[in-house]
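Q: My collaborator sent me two sequences in one message, no labels, and asked for predicted structures for both. Can we handle them in order? The first one she listed is below.
A: Yes, handling them in the order given. First sequence, followed by its structure tokens:
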Amino acid sequence: MSGPEDVVSAAGAAVAGRTVLVAGLGVSGAAAARVLLDAGARVLLTDAARPPAVDDLTGRGAEWLGAPATLPEGVDLVVTSPGWRPDAPLLAGAAAAGIEVIGEPELAWRLRIPGPDGTPAPWLAVTGTNGKTTTVTMLEAILTAAGHRAVAAGNVGRPLVEVVTARDADGAPAHDVIAVELSSFQLHWSSSLAPAAAAVLNVADDHTDWHGSFAAYRDAKARILERAPFAVADAGDPVASALVAGHPRPVTVTVGEPAPGQLGVRGGALVDRAFAADPAGEPIMDRAELPVPGPHNTVNALAAAALARAVGVPAAAVARGLAGFRGGAHRNVLVATIDGVDYVDDSKATNPHAAGASLASYPRVVWIAGGLLKGADVDPLVAAVAPRLSGVVLLGRDRAVVAQSLARHAPSVPVVEVASGNDGAVDHERTGAETTMARVVAAAARLARPGDTVLLAPAAASMDVFRDYGHRGQAFADAVRTLG
């Protein structure tokens, strides 16, 4: 691991001796504060409440400010956590005073340590409304299969500041390539990232409450492409494909026959026509060997393959990595098959775009949906998936919105609404959330017939009834196992 002297040599004048305010002390904020202290910065800490990390950080020399209403004097740089909106008074005050505000990924980019050849490990970066984590972890598996010392980091896994400053036992950088997941929040606060290749998987209506508009959200996503030599997107997503269209080296992926400059599917096999020496393309692997279902996961696999091929990974290593990939928790996970009915947990489908991709993977579905829609329009989703539905069970605060859409577009589909103990208000305790989900699963089981899939793909956030989407997915799995 790196020591203070290593970080100082890497950071140089970037932060040493400067006063840096770290706003927000979650996992990434606390990691940023630790690395800044090691790099010789004076570190000030602020958050809405005093988190446990403060004790360790003040013991290392940081200063806890609490939650000041105005920006302290003497601050040279602000490092903000993704949860802080741009209109937060401290951040707005910094911008008005001409003080730079960056996020943890931008800080990590500036603190990268060089390898034996004098250059830091390259980043292969992924963003998108949905599929980021799956694609990044697929990419990590591919890079590892190719013999790289790779890691997935950023919006998934470890904070980037820890990864880019880590050294192995011999003093060399611990990683020679990094698969980086970046959210729109993180990209908003990034200005100089230059990944070796970057992908915008898709862009759908999400997080407009944070960004202020869909255009601002889209433009934040587009930042990942600005300095990347290769720009990757799903050809089937109109916004993402438009973002890469004007790039000097666009690469798109498709579930159909690939054109020149694309990766796609031919005769049931994944084929590369963007980086292959043969203009007709180079086969990578049979689609049937990919261990995760659905067209959306084919797109994710092709995007991961494109990023890996952009830095010279052979097709055989791409195939080994993808064949050995196992999907993450709460992402289209088959929990059990009971009486001929599959029960699948895709609690990570927290918006309509993600739920639509999940629903497209199964021919007949008893759909479990609802939660906090955050203003998202579910009408296009319901209209598109109505022919697949054999029943719907709704829960959560905004379940009535989904029910109204079902009445318009799928009036013959049976719908059951399940209220939580306090009818959709925050209900995180076991006696409430787990009981609600048990009732939901029991209702879905009554609607399902052999050959159906009971699919938890809520199209909504979870925090009205559950702590997070992981809590929701675990409650579903527990209820299904009890049912079995």
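Q: And the one she listed second?
A: Here it is, processed independently of the first:
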Amino acid sequence: MGPLQVKPGVDYTAQYMEGTFTPGMSTEPHYHPGPEAIYTLTGEVCFEMPHGKIVGRAGEGVVMEAGHLHTLTATGPEQRRSLALVIYESAQPWRLPAVGWEPKNLCN
């Protein structure tokens, strides 16, 4: 997966995560001040963004650019497990709320 686009001369920190969601679980709308890569191990995940949605299935990866507003929802009948990497600007939190954008429930 990749490449993950970063700005030259900016200090970044890596946030590694393992996520387990039961079908229907979702995150709050948010964005990251750096790129994000998610690899789905089992199940299915749907990323809703202001311009549409992307579905990731087991064995697939999704890369999002820095500042990309989104929410993610575990879709499909089985538990969703994934690995994620967010490379974010060290001077900022790794995750920020998506102010002014409300999802349209494209993943339900």
